[in-house]
Amino acid sequence: MQIKTCRLAYLDWLRVVAILGIFLFTAARPFTRPATSAAPDQINYMLNSSCIPLLFFLSGATSLHMALKRNNAKMTLLWIRRLLAPLLTSLFGLLPLLIWLSQWESGNPGTYWSYYRTAVGLALHPGNWYHLWVIVCLTIYMVMMIPLFRWLRTASARRFQQSLLWFVPGRRIFLLLLPVAAVFIIGLLLGFPGPLLVFLYWWMLLVLGFFCMLQPELMDSLEHNRRYSLILLLMTVSFVVAGQNYHVSPLVAMLTEPVHAGLWVFCLTGYGKKYLHQEHRLRNYANLFIWPFYLLQQPLVIIIAGFVANWQYPPLLEYIFVMLSTWLFGILLFNLLIKPFVITRFFFGVKPATPPVTTGKVVKVQMPQSEFFY
Fold first, then answer.
1. H or E segment and range at residue 358
2. Helices (H), 8-71
3. Disulfide-capable partner of 266 in 16, 76, 229, 363 (CB 3.0 to 4.6 Å)?
């Protein structure tokens, strides 16, 4: 297929933007008003309507390049290193530690290892997964994508790739949001359970990203229509805000969710492709750092916010302190405990360091890079 398989800088930067956005919303949760107010709902709504959909869209787009560069065995190894190992690290390491700390603050005298079995049992309960839901879904989605990865090398895939050109001219690109909205609305009207509805909704966003990258001119169309996406997004946001102020029916508000999220994705992708498609010396570091930071940010926010809960400072200052402290501790943990060691790199989904160049007086040999890593 006529698709470039090199890394695209704007996809890397947009993934950084998406995870940083999730972090900013996560850091704000300890400082929201009580559940009786609208503030927590607004935070969750914006998080689920912008950053998380963008992350799944980008995951679908990058999965195409991964599949084209690797056979089934290498894709399986990549799946283990990139998703399964970090998921197990979180379920059996980070979450039990977080649960033990919460019990310790409540006066539980037990040691971590004596409480570990109970903590693991609680960590395996889906209600305690917090930010890990994204990784759980991505782990399942990559298995579900195997038939699509195999289909890529068939003649029907090439014909389908050409048929996608119909969506390129004018504003037709926005018609691609209709299947996502249809799945969400039908599931909502049929009374699907919340987790199942969200699972299918995120899956459709991931597939949408996959098909947009399958036909690169669709990404070009998002760039050309970025201003139109922004105008539609502002109109949709205004409608959402007006609906919250005038207490519109929750069903009506939920029906606007897929359109709102899709416009966020299209707008951010279009502007990202226009202004972020450039190399920078920090890109490689950010690419390595951002995934471990996603695993660490929720536990760090909860731990640090617990220490500042009794401070008598304005909530805004406490939020800034938690945000900056979490960012600082994340960088320190990454550089001191994760990046220097091969084993911690593996468990946090970070590829190992590039092999050094071997030099001598006569020859200069580049050590071969492992195809196990993306």
1. strand 357-359
2. 9-28, 39-46, 52-69
3. 229
